[in-house]
Amino acid sequence: MRIRHIKGSEEYIASDPFVIQQPEAYKGKWKKEVFGNDAPLYLEIGMGMGTFIRTHSFMYPENNYIGFELNTTVLYKAVKRYEGELSERGFDPGDNKGRNLRFIRSDARFLCEYFEDHEVDRIYLNFSDPWPKDKNANKRLTSPQFLRLYDRILKKDGRIEFKTDNRGLFDYSVETFPASGWEIKEITYDLHNDVRMNEGNVMTEYEAKFSAKGNPIFKLIAARTKDQG
Ligand code: SAM
Questions:
Q1: Closest Cα to residue 122, out of 88, 77, 162?
Q2: Strand runs labelled E in the chain
Q3: Rounded distance, CA 139 to CA 128, Å?
Q4: CA pair distance 74, 207, nearest whole angstrom
Q5: Using a 6 Å cutoff on CB, does residue 47 contact ligand 1?
Q6: Domain residue spans of the chain
Q7: Residue 79: burial class (beta carbons within 10 Å; 0-12, 13-18, 19+)
Q8: pLDDT tens digits for 8-37?
């Protein structure tokens, strides 16, 4: 989808207190230096406008959250929405102290430059771009190349939660996870009608849009296989 550039979005992001300008400076120190605590660190890669992670951050103040997004305009919209929500809740939208959500604008290819080995407790991949042509397969966020990066930054007992309405990407991922040393612990081909897996589900923007059209939502939860430890 083509996203129209918003004038001034780069400048806004460059000075926003919730956007981490030099994420490499916090490698290995996110909890202590950015959040000032030792709470679990949850990362959504390709968060879009961030409904999912913004909502999670309010629902679970005991956790730390990072929304990771490649596109500047999309990130700008996510940040503006978050700051609007802070205002509505009576918080100062210019003050990041004590808040449990931060944003990074970058490409997931560079994750290992920003996060130390096993620093992240959980990774969320929601409605990742499908890249349907074989020649672009390594751009899929569930390709073996990306799974190797997640293997490094994720805690040994950490998990990846992936949902999409794209059957091609989901079928591909059902093969790449086990082939890359991950066990699919839970899986559904109709999340919204799966009472157990849907419990506590927070819909993303894409999820709301595509489920309203009648598309079933697929979800899997993966963790390392035992021998990968
Ligand atoms: N997760 C949101 C949702 O479910 O509504 C957005 C889904 S949208 C289809 C995919 C998002 O992933 C886009 O905003 C895109 O810019 C971002 N993205 C794609 N490849 C990325 C990468 N390599 N690193 C970071 N973000 C990426």
A1: 162
A2: 41-45, 64-69, 101-105, 120-126, 154-164, 182-188, 218-224
A3: 10
A4: 16
A5: yes
A6: 9-224
A7: buried
A8: 999 999 999 999 999 999 999 999 999 999
21 burial (CB, 10 Å; 0-12 / 13-18 / 19+) is exposed
Active-site residue flag, 129: yes
Confidence of residue 4 (pLDDT cuts 50, 70, 90): confident
Q: What is the CATH number of domain 9-224?
A: 3.40.50.150
- Return the pLDDT at 25: 98
Each residue's pLDDT tens digit, 77-94: 999 999 999 999 999 999
| List 16, 95, 117, 129, catalytic entry | 129
107 Cβ inside 6 Å of ligand 1? yes
CA 182 / ligand 1 centre spacing (Å): 22
Phi, psi of 164 (to 5 degrees): -165, 165
